[in-house]
Structures are given as structure tokens and as C-alpha cells.
Amino acid sequence: MAAEAQYAALPVSITVNGVKHDALVEPRTLLVYFLREQLNLTGTHVGCDTSQCGACTVHLNGRAVKSCTVLAVQANDAEVKTIEGLADGDNFHPVQEGFREKHGLQCGYCTPGMIMTAVHLLETNPNPSDDEIKHALEGNLCRCTGYVNIVESIRWAAGKMKG
Amino acid sequence: MFPANFGYVAARSVEDALQLMTQHGEDGKLLAGGHSLIPAMKLRLQSPQTLIDLGTVPGLRGVSLDGNSLVIGALTVHADVASSDLVRKHVPGLADAAAVIGDLQVRNRGTIGGSVAHADPAADLPVILTALDASFVAQSPTGKRTISVDDFFTDFYTTALKANEILTEIRVPIPAAGTGTAYAKLPHPASGYVVVSAAALIVRRASGTCIASRIAIGGLGSGPIRAIATELELQGKPLTTQMIAGAAAKAAEETDPMEDSYASADYKRHVATIYARRAIEAAVARAKN
Fold it and tell me: How many contacts, defined by CB atoms under 8 Å, are there between A and B?
């Protein structure tokens, strides 16, 4: 088989933030680059690119994953949610609001990943303790705020979501 | 960072994947959750020509009961092992270990089969699965065989799986009444990988005597190591704090751990005795007669 044919782009169908995208992707395309470069959804960030920092966190079939460590072809027929899919029109998701209210960011680079992990946490554990929040954020690195306000933001969001 | 170019095939069944493995031979590599393989490919430590994806194979996920065993599909992600009611009820030590792998996102994607087949010497699951006396079901074009955990991890990143075999399930015997299981880990502060870890299975008589045990230590060798001296020391003895401490002190006997910039061999051996004690104590606390 010719090398070009062997590595040829493959058709995928990936639903992102509720919109189905039929696209061609090279097998080696990582999900994060598919989102950023093919769909222009640049809210998902590339930080370390080695599955440490969590800046690339998105939801894949409802679960927080690091999109730098998922191949786009592995997301075929899956549902992806990114930071762009959280707000309801002009209304922020409570976790987004929490980060604004409680000053959960400084430079903002890690924020989309922090928020996507926090949303997953609150979907599975609506009333987490501070320790549970910290444990959930183990895979998200922030290099400026020092996490105190991030934990505070998520606690605020949990309260808001309880109503 | 991109992996070198490769081809990709989504397997439709285990039989289909076996056929693809035969077709691609040494150029093919199985893909499960990809949380060991994709990072290795991005660093160009691995450059398979073709990935054969098992993620598209139905029936390889989930935890179920089969007689006296828990059966865990090879593609079950760590988060589902950690939260499984069956696992938590029968072998909580396995839930302990699955819950401290990597981080939340990694646990949502990394699989039990992928982890054990990768056989990283600093992984969590090989250690607890050794204490639990698990076995591994491998399917080849000619049939299935079951490999005992004591024969499975053969060297650094090396298992007893043959090139034409696919690991399909992990079987964990359900311990008898009076058994407790636990896992205790010293993680590397940056990577979260095991510096040293210990897993314990303790079978206790109602009188408080240890009937049987399996103690495994991670981080001291190419794979999990049975702490046989500790097991022998516990055998038939009352499980008092002092007895446990004495037995745990033998957990690193006859080991020769590799040193690295974080931990010297002596430090690892010392820490192994501490974590062995913690794992045994936690297992004893869970043993209900």
C-alpha cells in the first residue's frame, strides 16, 4: 500500500456542542487540534500537550477528558462539549459565573479546562467538599492564581446550581 | 506535538481485531484508551504503522459477576472501576487503586486492560491485582487462555501476552468472608506515578488471626513484587499493630530498586515498609467476619 493511502484522512462524524460535523481527519490528528484548527473552536487551549495540565479538557460523551490525548478518529460518532457550548445564549453556565464572581482566574489560560473539569465534577457530585474539589482538579494546572479562588469559584457554582 | 504518521482501523469485534493483528503483524498496535500509547507516540517512543482500535469493539466494557469472580472488561475505564458497586463491595482495594491513577480526566479515558498490558513499572493496577490474585483472559485466533497474575508481568513494560493475543478481561476472585483488601501509594509529587505502593489482601479469622495473605509492592522492581517474607510472617499470627509492623518491616527484603533523582534505593525500601504497614492495617480494618 502506498504511504499516502495508508495514512489517508478518514471520514468522521463528531457532534460538537450539539452540531454534527462530518469531516476528514488524518489518523494522527488529536481531538484538540481538530476542534481548534478544523472547527475554529479556539476556546479549548493547548497547554503542555502531554496530558498533564488539563487546559485542553473537553467533555467526550459527557465525561471530562484531555483532548490532547484523544485522537479525533476515536471521537467518531461521539458527542463533544467544549467551553463554547456551556453558556445558554447570553447566560453563563453557573461555573463560568462562579469564576467571574470569585475571581477564579488571572491570565485565563487554564480557565476553559478548569471550568470543563468543574462542570463534570458538579454533574457527578453536586455537593463536593473542598477536598473533593481539589482532588477533581488534580489534572488541571494553574500557574498564577494558586487555586484558592478556583476552589472558591466552584463552591460558589455548586451553591448556585442547588438554587 | 504529533505522533508520526500512522494508519487507523476501528475493529468491529475481537475476532476482527485478531484478524487485523495477523494482517498488520509487527507494524500493528492495539489501541485501548490510548493514555499510555498516545503520549508515547507523541514523544516518538513508539511509531506503529497502524493502530487497531479496540474502543469500537462492543462488549469489552463493564464489571460483572461470574460465579465466584468479578469479571472486568479490558476496556473498562479506571473511573468506572473505582465507582463500581461490585468492586467497592467485594474488593475495595481495587477501587482504592483505580481512584488514584493519574487524574480525573485520565481516569475517564484510561482503561484497566490498556494499563496492565502496558505494564508500566510505576503503575497502580498491577500491584493491587497481584494482591488480589487476579487472572487475565487472552484471546488468540486459536482460542482463549487464562494467565495468572503471578505469571503475567514478566519485565519492564512486558507481559506474558503473545503477539497474536488480545487481553479481553480481567478476573478477580471474590474473597471469602473475613477478607479485607487495600492499596496505599506514595505518588511522585509531579507525575502522580508510583514511587512506592503496597497492596494487601488479608484473610482473618473471627478470633483475629491471619489465615492467609497476599502482599504486593510496586516501585521496587520491573513490576509488582510479592512480599513473601511479610506474608509468611503474618501467617497464623494475631493481627496486632505490633505484629503487622514487624511483618511489614520485611516487605522490601531481597529487593534491589532502581534509584532515580527523586528516590534512592534505601529510601524506596524504607518507604515500602511504611506503605506495606498502612495497606495491611487498612485491609485488616475492612476484614469483616
Answer: 86
